[in-house]
Amino acid sequence: MFSGKTEELIRRLKRAQIAKLNVEIFKPKTDVRYHETAVVSHDLNSIQSTPVESSSAILLLGTNTQVVGIDEAQFFDDGLPEVCNQLARKGIRVIIAGLDMDFQGKPFGPMPALLAIAEHVTKVNAVCMQCGSPAVYSFRTVANANKILLGEKDSYEPRCRTCYHALV
Question: Residue 158 in contact with residue 126, Cβ under 8 Å?
């Protein structure tokens, strides 16, 4: 969290729009932290999207497009990698943003499979709130054992490996 994943997704999708490519953007219907339909970064940059219940809806709604963007991929079902493969086989560029690990430091949702089939991966890091080093972990600051807890700075803090493991 707080590494600029969504910011980078928005940047890439806006560039595709500037290039006059047909772009469709999707996000999980459950993610309404900033806006019901827009993908919004922590810096409040945004781009319109279509909230969907499941990955299969992306196949139905992303048919006549050249670029598909998907935000918060970790919250999608395990069918997302196959959906992305089907889109890519049709020549559609697929750009995805998501967390690769949950708050326990374990692989998150369909992200491991997506990383395995990706042609290009850009891993962005946050800044550790304890020591300032590059942070790859999301430390949950509230008592809640649920795997999925939509939250912000009130619930999570980016941590480097050393600072994360010092507290768990």
Answer: yes
Residue 155 in domain: no
State the pTM of this model.
0.86
Tens-binned pLDDT, residue by residue, of the chain (168 aa): 678 888 899 899 999 999 999 999 999 887 656 556 667 666 666 778 889 999 999 998 867 899 999 999 999 999 999 999 999 999 999 999 999 999 999 999 999 999 999 999 999 999 999 999 999 999 988 877 676 665 555 788 999 999 999 966
Its domain, for residue 110, covers 5-124
Is there a domain that residue 113 lies in?
yes
Catalytic residue among 72, 82, 119, 152: 72
Amino acid sitting at position 90? K
- Residue 36 known to be catalytic: no
The rounded distance, in Å, linking the Cα atoms of 167 and 139 is 9
Look at the chain and report how many structural domains it folds into: 1
